[in-house]
Recover the amino acids of this structure.
């Protein structure tokens, strides 16, 4: 697919989505955010995409909002509240049925940091720097970060980073639970691809898609009974499907499975269950 501010490349069922404004340290504009939304929609609908890696072109991952407009950068001059486009991005990612891996190659500040929170796993280069800098810009965290970050690193760590707005390095991000591992710059993308392959090889695309949505959507459940209800429906319906038959047969025959079901057309009949009013 062709985008102005992104590159979109699929190889071995892995999409590498690269923020591509290197001369601006990949700082985002509204137009760029709208392209990111369209890219995630396209990837979610494409059965050839089994996992998504997000990285940045040049020496930065994303320097946050493009503030070249000066003091009025965050003054939208609109009648009523204008929805935060960063939040529209992370909400689209939240609905995605494909695993998302962040390969954070350099500075990730403001939206560059909050953007990563809707990803499932974050890997960082030694050159990465993070900053939830909103308190130093006179605004509040955006991109749904006040929902995502405490669930990722805990309330105390999230508030420390939010309150101070300080920029911190990859080691602190690792120690604080924001990133899974830190790599040298030349190792980062290779490590992200190897991780993505563990999600895409010998796994059912529908199983992975359902699991991603179950984990994210159950974040707000107030009792494990909600998970039990959902587990029961999922095992019952997918257990009758072609992927379950293939998975068991391949195991018994000691061979790699060839799962036939497609995310685009074979999700369970109760998906998306969170739009229902009650459990039947």
């Amino acid at each position: 697919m062709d985008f102005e501010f992104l590159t979109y490349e699929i190889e071995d069922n892995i999409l590498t989505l690269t923020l591509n404004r290197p001369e601006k340290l990949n700082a985002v504009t509204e137009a760029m955010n709208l392209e990111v939304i369209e890219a995630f929609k396209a990837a979610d609908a494409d059965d050839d995409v089994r996992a998504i890696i997000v990285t940045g072109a040049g020496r930065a991952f994303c320097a946050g909002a493009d503030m070249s407009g000066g003091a009025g950068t965050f003054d939208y001059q609109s009648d009523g509240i204008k929805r935060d486009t960063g939040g529209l991005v992370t909400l689209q990612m939240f609905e995605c049925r494909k695993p998302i891996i962040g390969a954070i190659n350099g500075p990730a500040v403001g939206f560059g940091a909050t953007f990563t929170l809707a990803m499932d796993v974050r890997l960082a280069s030694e050159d990465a720097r993070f900053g939830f800098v909103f308190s130093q810009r006179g605004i509040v965290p955006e991109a749904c970060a006040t929902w995502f970050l405490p669930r990722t690193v805990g309330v105390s760590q999230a508030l420390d980073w939010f309150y101070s707005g300080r920029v911190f390095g990859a080691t602190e991000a690792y120690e604080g639970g924001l990133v899974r591992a830190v790599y040298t710059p030349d190792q980062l993308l290779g490590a992200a691809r190897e991780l993505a392959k563990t999600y895409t090889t010998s796994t059912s695309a529908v199983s992975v898609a359902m699991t991603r949505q179950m984990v994210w959507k159950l974040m707000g459940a107030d009792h494990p009974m909600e998970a039990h209800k959902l587990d029961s429906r999922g095992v019952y319906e997918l257990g009758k499907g072609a992927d379950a038959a293939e998975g068991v047969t391949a195991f018994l025959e000691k061979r790699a499975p060839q799962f036939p079901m497609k995310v685009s057309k074979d999700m369970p009949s109760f998906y998306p269950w969170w739009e229902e009013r009650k459990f039947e």
In short: The radius of gyration is 20 Å.
